[in-house]
Amino acid sequence: MHRLDTYHLSEAGIPDGAKTTSDIPITLGSFLASAMNQHTVREYGAKSVNFVTISAAYVAISFVPGRSPDDLAVPPTGYPSSKVLLHGHETKSLSFLSYPFGDGVTFYERIMTGLVNCDVITIRTCQEIEGKFCDFIESQFQRKVLLTGPMLPEPDNSKPLEDQWHQWLNRFEPGSVVYCSLGSEIILEKEEFQEICLGMELTGSPFLVEVKPPKGASTIQEALPKGFEERVKERVVVWGGWVQQPLILAHPSVGCFENISVAVKCEMYKDTELGNLVRRNLAKWKKSLLSSGIISGYVNRYVM
């Protein structure tokens, strides 16, 4: 008989009941990582799966055996794209990879340890979009790479888009609305929240921002920049709750899923080369990813 010692989260400073990073402040992320450092399962021959939720392209260019954060400015040997690259400012923004992230281990080392020592790498993506990057990752880590697809809920025609969003989106021309979503885990500082709102305002386009209230604020309204609501009036919605994202993205008025004002302007202008390219790509991927059966097909193949 073997005794299984449990590493209690409370010993790592994690509040009772916390299970994922969405349950704790970002400042406690390293403590949660430390609590998950235990290697007990290896003693019992259990297999491990590294579930990657970021893009395969990012993993392919940033996390390759034998490299370090200092090498990120140059793509790794055999990297499959000459266009999907890290630019100077993007490389600088990744300096956090070298920071300690629990038990004296850097964030980069922690990610690499998981990728190198797992039995299978699973990535939340699809072959149609990132197949060549997934193949590269498989060759670099010598691990089977399995894809789950985008893991979006299947379009449910029995539940149409809620009236408030249907009526608001119908007020605008096709392809004119910018949709910005920061997900369910991100809680911004108030200054960051206001910068995003002001940046979106500068696009001059109608937009919907889905984001949690920032730190120190209980509601979205109390955190908005001064005079913001009066300036943008009814062409803008900043929403702090859940929305029907697949149905919103499928609405013909939505033309961009972005959050950088200059890029948004280029993409939303109808007569620019970049704008036309983005619209063609958007139409292509909308058709592919929202087509019947593609999402459930990936999940079914993964389970099998």
Automatic annotation (TrEMBL):
Entry's family note: Belongs to the UDP-glycosyltransferase family.
Gene Ontology MF annotations: UDP-glucosyltransferase activity
Protein origin, superkingdom: Eukaryota
SUPFAM superfamilies named among the record's database cross-references: UDP-Glycosyltransferase/glycogen phosphorylase
Organism for this UniProt entry: Brassica carinata (Ethiopian mustard)
Record-linked InterPro entries: UDP-glycosyltransf_plant (IPR050481)
Protein name: Uncharacterized protein
